[in-house]
Amino acid sequence: MRIALFAYHFAEYTYRLGSALSEHHEVLLFTFKDVAEPELGILPQRKTSNLRVFMHNGRGLKSPWFILNIGEILHELKKFRPEVIHYQESHYCPFVAALAFLTKYPLVLTIHDHLPHSGARQNNLDRWQRNFLRKYADMAIVHGKRIREEAEIILPWLKGRIVSVPHGPIGKLVAPVNKKWEQGILLFFGRLEKYKGLPYLIDAVEILKQQGVPIKTIVAGKGNDLKAYRKQIKHDASFELIERYINFDEVQLLFERANIVVLPYTDATQSGVAAMALRYGRPVVATDVGSIAEMVHHGYNGYLVPPRDALAFAEAAKKLVVDQSLAQLFASNAQLLVEREMSWASIAARSFEVYCSAKQIRRKRRLLQKPTRF
């Protein structure tokens, strides 16, 4: 099958999917250069690969050259002749403008956040683009059964056409996984937004300090929610703050230092940070929100606790810091997940099934649209 992938956000995620699909199919991936390079570094080159990456320059909507992005999309698709188009949902992308010209193709949408996170800022244009992308889809993919059930309620026109496919591991490919972490290091990584639950982590760290548990928490990333807590974190020796974008090569070093990856989210859908924890073989302590339970299996590769419960979060983290043999077991189990049901090969196979369904739906739509001859 010839598959066109569009990722003007989630570039690494889509590249991993495209690489797995290219083992058996021809794949063309569209992305922005300034999106792909920070997430992927130098793109891996394989001598016998069915994956080709087409990178646009990032021309904004206000640029008179934005039309070039649309022209490039239509030109490359005409040459490639895809049998299905799979696009990632994002607020801005030239694919939105090109979509009106692509309705002859079966269309598959991955919805990463069916509902906005708490604290997320969306303007009218963002909402319009999101709804536009969802209306055109023949099939949709989400990352979790709970999310699928919720999405079918808020997107009734897609009922019966939303499929749960796991979020695959992301991060630099490492083999073998380095399990020589620094005992007691907690890693809080990524966008520092309201839904990430930073104040609950701060409270949990204070509880652990009072109990005499030797820990240090790395807070790595940047975002709006840090402002209220920056001074407190900087003046607390049990924290290490790295307030900037973490480039591709540094991510692995941070995760390899971590004894535990912490996700004290107040709400979520799925988590790219949990996907990185899988890749690097790190135990996770997370809140049971969204479909995180489908990536962090309680008592297997991590612990799940109720959201906004700092005491429960602290107790779960304490178990893994104190009992290093248990932490090592959870790390090994994370690797088993990566090799089995959450492998990109498995995800590619399940995605291919969705593509086949989309082709059938598009074929039926064409038949219904054909005028009846008398």
Entry keywords:
374 residues; alpha/beta; Rossmann fold; 2 domains; 7-stranded parallel β-sheet; 6-stranded parallel β-sheet
Helix content: 40-55%
Structural class by secondary-structure content? alpha/beta
Largest sheet: 7 strands, parallel
Rg from C-alpha positions? 22 Å
Strand content range: 15-25%
Give the second-level CATH assignment, the architecture of the largest domain: 3-Layer(aba) Sandwich
Which spans have pLDDT < 50 for at least 5 consecutive residues? none
At the fourth level of CATH, the homologous superfamily of the largest domain is: Glycogen Phosphorylase B
Number of strand segments = 13
What is the first-to-last residue Cα distance? 36 Å
Structure report:
This protein has 2 domains: 2-168 and 344-369, Rossmann fold, CATH 3.40.50.2000; 185-339, Glycogen Phosphorylase B (Rossmann fold). Helix content is 41%, strand content 16%. Helix 1 (11-21) crosses helix 13, helix 7 (198-210) packs across helix 11 (310-322) and helix 11 (310-322) crosses helix 12 (324-339). The radius of gyration is 22 Å and the shape is globular. The longest helix is centred in the last third of the chain and has 26 residues, at 344-369. With 374 residues, the chain is an alpha/beta fold.
